Amino acid sequence: MRNQRTITDLPLEVLDLIFKNLRNLRDKLRLAQVHEHLGKGFAYHSRNDYKRFCPKIYFPVRLYRVLLAECGPSIVEFTCGSDTWSDLLAKSIAKHCPNLESVNISVSLRNSMSVQTFLLNMANSLISVEIKLNDNCQSPRILNAVAELKNLRKLLYEGYMDRGVNQLHKLVAMEELRLDYQGRGYRCRSVNLLQICGPMTNLRCLTVTNICIFPAEGFHSMIWPNLKDLKMQNCEISSVIPDCPKLKTVCLKFCKCRIRGYVCSFILKNGKNIEEIDESCEPAPFDGHSFLEVIRNCRKLQLFSTPMGGIKIYQALVSSLVDILKENEMARKEPFELILYCRDKLRWIRRFLHRTSYPQVIHTLYLYKF
Known about the structure:
The protein is an alpha/beta fold. The protein contains twelve helices and 16 strands.
């Protein structure tokens, strides 16, 4: 027959209808790999369906490579567990996904070298990286590879840390940094946090867990100019922290401060814009007088979570608290909320609160598991 037509001659709009009627992704990719035009039809049909690419463990890698070849430019996020990682898949992503911006990867001993190579291959496009090292993985080069991602704005790292963590100071574009040390035999890992974060002038959110903050040996900046959220959990504070003039949230959970009175003085010094404080430190950072000073100086403070350790509750203290909150009421967007980790102290505060002139200025809550 003259001018015989086949499926490869159909326009993309018609191929879109054909792909819609196929049962599952396997069938679609099997058809897409038959001919270049059918591959284009699959890409047209998929549009932005694979903007976030999350491979599954039992799906054939050869078919995923077809997907990446056709839809790679539309992929911006990649999430992969250590059990679904494949060297061939990583190479295909590096080849076909020039717009990849964000990765979330679990790392084991089996795939650690491949992950390092992959990160370095994607260094020019990545702006967000989440890395979780499995318990048995103590790869010495993962952090060195991460430190080469010059455009990185967000890094969430969980697992073992070696000296490579000190190379993170190269990431000067960083806006959000989370370091969660998970190691055997040590409660905290000594990290030169001050020198790491010093060059990160755009840093807005800093979260560290199981970290020992010690005085830096060399020069480092004594101001974090744009930091708004500071969160520390199970940390030891043995050094003065740089000033944070834009700080809004302070969270110090189960932390030990080796500098007497420093937690209180840090909050007072940077309290102009603080809206939320959550502390459970050792030793207790406040007495009755310094607690009231924090309330007075942090005029925008809306939420204060604390065990109130070392503070004796009595009528004059609660009355002074209410008077200060009443004076600062216009500076806050919402009523002040006090969350206590001690039921007995909450009971006494509520009892004295009813005897004040303006008890509605404060909401009190008890939190058992914190």
